[in-house]
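re: ur question from yesterday

yeah so i grabbed the chain u mentioned. its 131 aa long if i counted rite. heres the sequnce exactly as i have it in my notes:
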Amino acid sequence: MWVKTTIAILAAAFAVGCAEHDLEEPAPRTTRYDRHVEGELDDAVAMAAEGRYSSAAAELARLAKKYDATQDDELAAAAMFWYGFCLEKQGQIDQAQEIYEHLERRYADMPVIKQVRPRLRMLSEHPETVQ
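ran it thru and got these structure tokens back, copy pasting raw so excuse formatting
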């Protein structure tokens, strides 16, 4: 009998506590896999920042394909943008422009588009200024 009473009291206390506090949906948990995936992209972008465009481009192309296959559009778009950037820095302007145009068509609602549009405009208007 005391068990049922204790459970009823705990349930009532919990209900009152929940009503007193504005409960929000918990933030999504970042799993070890998620941090690893984003770490791969961070590492590839770091290679680009160091000027190792060829190595970074190869890794970013691989990551863009991987993220696209897993339907992680935000990471796929980011990897593709940085891949285009590396191609651009290596003088492969036409290929970079194709990637930027693809990003604009397919990932128009992704945050990376804010970086794509100015680069695309620059390549269209002044391709000689790239480097």
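noticed a couple things. Confidence is low (pLDDT under 50) at residues 1-8, 10-33. also The domain at 33-129 is CATH 1.25.40 (Serine Threonine Protein Phosphatase 5, Tetratricopeptide repeat).
anyway ttyl
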